[in-house]
Write a structure and sequence with these properties.
The structure holds two protein chains of two kinds.
Chain A (H helix, E strand, L loop, with lengths): L3 E4 L2 E4 L4 E8 L5 E7 L6 E7 L2 E5 L6 E7 L2 E7 L7 E8 L9 E2 L3 E5 L1
Parallel strand pairs in A: 2-11
Antiparallel strand pairs in A: 1-3, 3-8, 4-5, 4-9, 5-6, 7-8, 9-10, 9-11
Chain B lengths: L2 E5 L2 E5 L4 E8 L3 E9 L5 E7 L4 E4 L2 E6 L4 E6 L8 E9 L5 E3 L3 E6 L1
Parallel strand pairs in B: 2-11
Antiparallel strand pairs in B: 1-3, 3-8, 4-5, 4-9, 6-7, 7-8, 9-10, 9-11
Classes of the chains: A mainly beta, B mainly beta.
């Protein structure tokens, strides 16, 4: 199994809703990442988890709350989002934080905030 | 602050042409430079270049790292319409555990 999966593929939510994005990998990777990508822009790093611990938070607003329940699973909890948070949310993983391999990206969740 | 600049920002060519995409970077303690291709969804990995692996080739695609000039090029020969995509360059610092992306080059191959 050499893929990163993300659910849902699409999500539409209101500004008062609470929702969660899910990312899963079964490659034994111990570093996992959340990125946000706006249209025609490159991915922007949001969070990095290394060995299930949050190691990097790129000053992301608290309405985004990451969680890593185990080494295969990464969640992103969303609450009170703004329309400008609409974007493609990408999850990625790699073997380990200091490894020489690349990051493998999931297909993304396209989020629309109304 | 680490920085990646790609050029051109967009490019339109005809099938069969050869294209060269550029990436220059500034990073403290360089570890690797990566090229990704992005169509409608997630970026797909093309190449990783490091100090010990400065040239990579796969089919019609090839890439070279110039450590002295702090830059890299991605060449695509005999382009096809399926090569139309955004090509992203990213660098990673040795102790950073994160990728810094350039803005990307939008390539459109016309039939």
């Amino acid at each position: 199994d050499t893929e990163v999966t993300q659910t849902p593929k699409h999500l539409v939510m209101g500004m008062t809703n609470k929702k969660s994005l899910k990312c899963e990998q079964h490659m034994g990777h111990r570093a996992m990442y959340w990125y946000k990508q706006k249209a025609k822009k490159p991915p922007e790093l949001m969070f990095v988890y290394s060995y299930e611990k949050l190691s990097i938070n790129e000053s992301v607003p608290s309405r985004f709350s990451p969680e890593c329940p185990n080494s295969s699973l990464l969640n992103l909890h969303l609450h009170a989002l703004q329309p400008e948070d609409s974007a493609l949310y990408l999850c990625a993983s790699r073997l380990g934080p200091g490894s020489s391999d690349t990051q493998y990206f999931g297909p993304g969740t396209r989020l629309t905030v109304l | 602050e680490d920085k990646v600049v790609q050029s051109p920002l967009s490019l339109v060519v005809h099938e069969g042409d050869t294209v060269t995409l550029n990436c220059s970077y500034e990073v403290t303690n360089f570890r690797s430079l990566l090229w990704y291709k992005q169509e409608k969804k997630a970026p797909t990995f093309l190449f990783m270049l490091t100090s010990s692996g400065i040239e990579k080739k796969s089919g019609r695609l090839s890439s070279i790292l110039d450590k002295k000039e702090l830059s890299s090029i991605l060449n695509i020969t005999a382009t096809q319409t399926g090569d139309s995509a955004i090509y992203l360059c990213a660098v990673e610092a040795r102790y950073g555990n994160k990728l810094v992306f350039g803005a990307g080059t939008i390539l459109r191959v016309k039939s």
